[in-house]
Each structure stands twice: as C-alpha cells, then as structure tokens.
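call fold target=Sugar diacid recognition domain-containing protein
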Amino acid sequence: MLRSHYLKDYTAQQIVQRAMRIIPYSVNVMDEHGVIIASGEPARIQQRHEGAILALKENRVVEIDSATANQLKGVRPGINLPISFNGQLIGVLGITGEPDKVRAYAELVKMASELIIEHMALIEQKQWDKRYREELINKLIQFENSPESLQSMAAYLGIDLAQPRVVMVIELRQPDREALRNLIDYFDTRARDHLVTFTDFNELIIIKPIVLKNGEWDVRQEMSALQSFKSWATSSGFSRIIIGGYFPGDTGLHRSLQSARATQALVKRQKLKNQYVFYHDHALPALLGGVSESWQVQELSRLWLHLVANDPKGVLQQTLRAWFEQNCDLTQTAKALHIHVNTLRYRLQRCEEITRIKINELKNMLWLYIGMELQCESVGSHNLPPSSTAKVR
C-alpha cells in the first residue's frame, strides 16, 4: 500500500541535497506514481521515470545500464531502490550512473533517505500533536464542545480528563526566543501531563493536574510543585504565576480560568508583587472586582473609607487586618502584632468610635471586612504583617 503523504516535496529535496553532499552522483526521488519530485538535475522534475514505476510495481531494486536506458522513456543509467516507511512503500530513490559504479552507494543512501523521512514524519506528528493539544486546551477552558467530543480528542492525545486540574496563568517579562524554547521544552519533557498554550507573547495558559485529598485540593502542598518549576520559569523571564480555583464537573476548567482571570485583574488593581498568587487566597476581592465601579461598592466601602480618613498613620487599618486574619481572636491578633491584648482592645474601641458601629456584631463586622477587601489599596494596606497564607505566596 502506497502512502504518499510521508514523502512530500520538501522532504524529497532534503534527501537529494544531503545525499549529493556525500556522493559524486546525481540523486532523484520519485513519488508513488514514479514521477520525479526532487532531483540533482532540476530539469527532470515532474518527469515520469520508467525505472521507478517498475521498482514500485515489483517492489524491488531495478538496475538500468546504458543499453537498457536507451529503450526506456525518461530514464538514464542508474539504480532505483524502493523507499519504505513503517513497512509501507512510499516512493523510489534513484542514483544516476552506471550500476557498477553507484551500487556501492545505493543501500547507504537508501538507509539515510528513510532516516530523513522518519525524522520529518516525527516532526510533523509532533506539530500536529501540539496543535491538537492547543485545540483541546481552548475547548476545555471555553467549554465549547460536548464532553463526548472532548473525550475523543483527549483519548487520541493520551490525556486523562478524569484527572483533577486547575488553570494557571504564567506571566513573562519580555521573553526572548531561547527563553521561550527552554520553557516549552520543560513542559514537553518534564511535565507532559500539563497542557500548555500561548494566549499572548508574554503569557501562557497551563492546565495543571492536581492531587485531591478527601475531595479537597491542598493549596499549600501545591507550593512544592511550583517551587520545583521556579528555576526553569525564572530563566525564561518568569514574572508571576496566578493559579485559579479548583471546580469539579464538566465546566470546572472554564470556571477555573475565570477565577484565574479575576485574580489577575485583582493583582493589577492592587499592584501585588507576589510571584505566586492563588485565587484561593483572594477569592472575595477577586469575585467583587467585577463590580468595583458600582454604587454598591461605594456603599459597601463607606465604613472602611471613613476609618481610613480618620487613621492617617494606618495603625487602625493594620490592626483590623490582623484581627480579621486571625479570625477575630484577640490573643492571636495581639501576638501577631506584638502588642499587649489591652492595647488591641483600645484600638478596636477606637475603630468603633470612628465608624460608630459595634464591631462584634456580625452584620457590622461583615460590612467592614468587605469594605476593607474592596479598598485594599488604602493607606496602610501594604504595611501588614505576614499572614498565614502569605507565607506560601
């Protein structure tokens, strides 16, 4: 069975050029119809070669001397060898010259030709696989197709869609070509289970497999995997990794991308410098970011903004942030701030006096907390002590 798509014109030309650098004879490559598609004598291209047709028909080496050549059309003295790939006949290699002179080169050139064809086929297969992987990523994160069609594509690529995954956005700082090649090589060789695509010159989307424990994703454990990746990413102009949330179900990856994008917008608004940013750690402000210009946000922020206006040094803001971070535990908050618990009580009392609310009442506490999250660029917001979650960012 003939398979012409393995022997393309540019592959045939590669065979001719490389062979003629080594042997002092002209080389021809014929397709499955016996038509010359590459030759050391360009004028012969597109001519039918009778010797090649015979080699294809009988699947054997055909030697043609000068006497025989004079009786055939489009033929010169030489040797014609069938070319096979994956056990299938795909064309013919011809070396022009008296058979006794070129015979010594024939098998060697044939073997080299088949190696070139195999190499080119592997490159083409890799390119197609890359396109399919990118297409699968786009379909997964946009959820454009039915689960059945996604499963078929994933099965072809050997990807298990049952594996829990999240979406990561990797931001790069003006990467050069070599840096990008190294980064892609990392995912091709060391992280083949990651699905990778470029959305911009400075950005990659990664669909990353994760491990669940009792149905939950341990975000802290994820840091060890990210740390092992850091050295590769840094050499490639890595700037920041933003990790979306984990959502089970058919639309989970689409939601994970949305959560990563919301977190990315939050990072820009707040001008965060963290290299690793998890949606898990910023869920509320990220979710509220979409309404940041509305009147509802202004109303929700009213208590916090009033506190900010009356706290020029940011001490009360810092105190409230630490208090919320410690789940409103006085002892733990005082310890985190390195102050006496009575000092903490005084500061919280000052917050009540300024805002004119009872801070221990759930409704007021929630109102103040949401306002703080929405206005996290306020005075004093960057002077916070490290939080329990900040250690992993």
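return ok
Residues 269 and 281 are 16 Å apart (CA to CA). Residues 377-393 have pLDDT under 50 and may be disordered.
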